[in-house]
Amino acid sequence: MKALITGISGQDGYFLSQLLLSKGYEVHGVLRRNSSMTHGTMELLPPDVRSQIIIHHGDITDENFLSNLLQSEKPEELYHLAAQSFVGYSFENSQSTYDVNIGGTLNVCNAIRSSSTDTRMYFAGTSELFGKPLETPQNENTPFFPRSPYAISKLAGLWTVRTYRDAYKLFMSNGILFNHESEVRGPEFVTRKISTGVARVHQGSQQPIILGNLSAVKDWGYAKDYVEGMWKMLQYDISDDFVMGTGESHTVKEFVEEAFGVIGIRLTWKGQGVNEVGLSEGGRVLVKVNRDLYRPLEADNFTADYSKAREKLGWEPKVKFKELVRIMVENDIKLIQRK
Ligand code: GDD
Description:
The chain is α/β, with parallel strands linked by helices. It is 40% helix and 17% strand. The chain folds into 2 domains: 2-182 and 220-248 and 299-320, NAD(P)-binding Rossmann-like Domain (Rossmann fold, 3-Layer(aba) Sandwich); 190-215 and 251-297 and 329-338, UDP-galactose 4-epimerase, domain 1 (Alpha-Beta Complex), CATH 3.90.25.10. It is built from 11 helices and 15 strands. Strand 2, helix 2 (47-50) and strand 3 (54-57) form a beta-alpha-beta unit. The site of guanosine-5'-diphosphate-alpha-D-mannose has 24 residues, from helix 4 and helix 7.
């Protein structure tokens, strides 16, 4: 079996490429050339794993590149993970977010349609589509209410996939995945920012962690579980849409508390809103809030109802909140100690 992954240098590409290789797949990845020739999370893969991945340099905004690639490789499976995935950034750069997330997805769909109609495609949808959820928990029938340029672009991507699936009878599935994190999460995302900040405090740093909205409620799971779900979607009899999450929701503040708990610090909170601070038992300021890190609109109150994925795909998240936080903090402590 041959699989192609766009966005292979991201967190999910890291776990998915390993999963597919362990199942005996020939794994191909699309990698955008950048001036420093960095390979993102691929650089964290063990060399023997990395050397097995066949890289194609190109950009998903280039339709010719994609159709030529699909024409020559004809992969059985295509995991379309490449995206501008940072919600906060999408408010400042909506144009490039639309170009990559909508244009890129359209190009992938067109390339499959024109050059490789037997390819099964996975599209990385998101809980951000629910934005301001109209019901709790959220499942495949919950109305969408996007609240950022990122979410709007993903909504267009999801509907492009649905339309191509129905119009041209292609096997294209949407994953509506809730937040999924890990030890290779990018440093701009809140969970990794917290886990590295806590690890630094453990190693003697005096710097407080500076965050935005502490009250946002998210459903956080472990990325490794979610790539298993992506793969299961493409093994299913028919293409469809599936919600995947843990069913457990927590605030950013609870993530911070749990993370400090891993290093034996019990936080207390003082103040309100942007004046709120997190203190150690000795009264040291360990967490501060900065208004500039708030988003113009927040998307939260997320809790996944993943019963469809459980019933139809036999998918279940193995790692829950507490274990996820422990994995991330302990890994960041190890990374600092190794330096
Ligand atoms: N990034 C960041 N930095 N977020 C902060 C901060 C901060 O300093 N302080 C508070 N937050 C809050 C954000 O306002 C948001 O509510 C929450 O923390 C999580 O933010 P992110 O970690 O940036 O992730 P996200 O939820 O916006 O989006 C991630 O998950 C989606 C759902 O799976 C991304 O991976 C998206 O690409 C993905 O679709």
